[in-house]
């Protein structure tokens, strides 16, 4: 039955005697006890970052060294839309994955009933620069930022341009669902893949900045992004950008050991 034969009687007992609700509660209790991987935690808490999408495998690669550090993490988009009591799956998943960290989130709707110990939620739009700056003033600087909000191209870009400069040196910024870059109803474009207004083209253009020190352009003035992006990772519908100091002759370290 199971992978571990000794557990078979226990699993049978659980399946035959506990209701769906009780089994879910048991999984959550066990998740509090065992340091399960991110894919498992996504399934336990019901986040589509695993299953609907396959982001958690990539996140684990980038986050595993940071798991037990004391970080400030911001996720754009609580989930559950208008319903104030529905959503928050990924926030609970991050809370369990990062047991020492504080999880912050923003949503256009009031999601305050979903707040709990180590989860704080602000109401406002990711397209509102002043609101984003206020959140950073109050709760930042953030070590990790995950954009899983509206996925509208202009919103994605406003959030990135506002939040990336305000996050910690050594931080990691993730943008999910980049497929909207190809969807006209979200402000994307599939017909002209070089359209400079799409999110993917904005982000792709930043890759040149990784090598700005080698440009043969006398007088070139590096942008903030040139000087502060040290690695960019492109996956299916997901981009992960590492912040650091891109002004040293050697490849700069990513999030420093012992930083919190
Ligand atoms: C895909 S859901 C987030 C799912 C959640 N991160 C998870 O994995 O469980 C997107 C959320 O973004 C919110 N949202 C939509 N437009 C927004 C905006 N302009 N600013 C902030 N949040 C927004 C929606 O209300 C919705 O709750």
Radius of gyration: 20 Å
Corresponding CATH architecture: 3-Layer(aba) Sandwich
* Ligand kinds: S-adenosylmethionine
CATH topology: Rossmann fold
* Category from helices, strands and their pairing: alpha/beta
Number of domains: 1
Mean pLDDT across all residues, rounded? 91
Number of helices: 9
**CATH homologous superfamily grouping:** Vaccinia Virus protein VP39
Main-sheet strand order equals: 3-2-1-4-5-7-6
Q: Topology as H/E string?
A: HHHHEHEEHEHEHHEE
Which regions have little confidence, pLDDT < 50, spanning 5+ residues?
A: none
CATH class category: Alpha Beta
Q: Sheet with the most strands? A: 7 strands, mixed
Distance between the termini: 43 Å
Helix content: 25-40%
Which shape, going by the Cα principal axes?
elongated
Beta-strand portion reads 5-15%
Report the strand count: 7
Word description of this protein:
This protein is α/β, with parallel strands linked by helices. The protein contains 9 helices and 7 strands; from the N terminus they run ααααβαββαβαβααββ. It has helices at residues 8-17, 20-33, 38-45, 55-63, 89-97, 129-139, 153-163, 199-209, 224-228; strands at 72-76, 102-107, 119-123, 144-147, 172-176, 229-235, 238-243. Strands 3-2-1-4-5-7-6 form a 7-stranded mixed beta sheet, sandwiched between helices. It starts with 7 loop residues before the first helix and ends in a 17-residue tail after the last strand.
């Amino acid at each position: 039955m199971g992978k571990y034969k000794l557990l078979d009687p226990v699993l049978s007992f659980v399946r035959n005697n506990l209701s769906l609700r009780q089994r879910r509660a048991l999984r959550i209790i066990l998740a509090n006890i065992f340091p399960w991987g991110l894919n498992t935690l996504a399934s336990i808490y019901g986040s589509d970052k695993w299953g609907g999408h396959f982001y958690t495998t990539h996140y684990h690669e980038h986050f595993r060294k940071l798991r037990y550090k004391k970080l400030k993490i911001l996720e754009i988009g609580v989930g559950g839309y208008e319903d104030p009591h529905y959503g928050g799956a990924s926030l609970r998943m991050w809370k369990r994955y990062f047991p020492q960290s504080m999880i912050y989130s923003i949503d256009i709707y009031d999601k305050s009933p979903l707040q709990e110990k180590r989860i704080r939620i602000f109401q406002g739009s990711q397209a509102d620069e002043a609101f984003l700056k206020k959140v950073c003033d109050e709760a930042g600087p953030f070590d990790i930022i995950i954009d899983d909000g509206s996925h509208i191209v202009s919103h994605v870009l406003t959030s990135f341009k506002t939040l990336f400069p305000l996050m910690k040196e050594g931080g990691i910024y993730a943008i999910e669902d980049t497929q909207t870059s190809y969807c006209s109803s979200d402000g994307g474009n599939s017909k002209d893949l070089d359209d400079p207004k799409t999110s993917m083209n904005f982000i792709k253009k930043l890759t040149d900045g990784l090598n700005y020190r080698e440009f043969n352009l006398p007088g070139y003035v590096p942008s903030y992004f040139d000087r502060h992006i040290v690695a960019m990772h492109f996956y299916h519908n997901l981009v992960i950008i590492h912040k650091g100091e891109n002004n040293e002759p050697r490849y700069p370290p990513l999030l420093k050991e012992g930083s919190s």
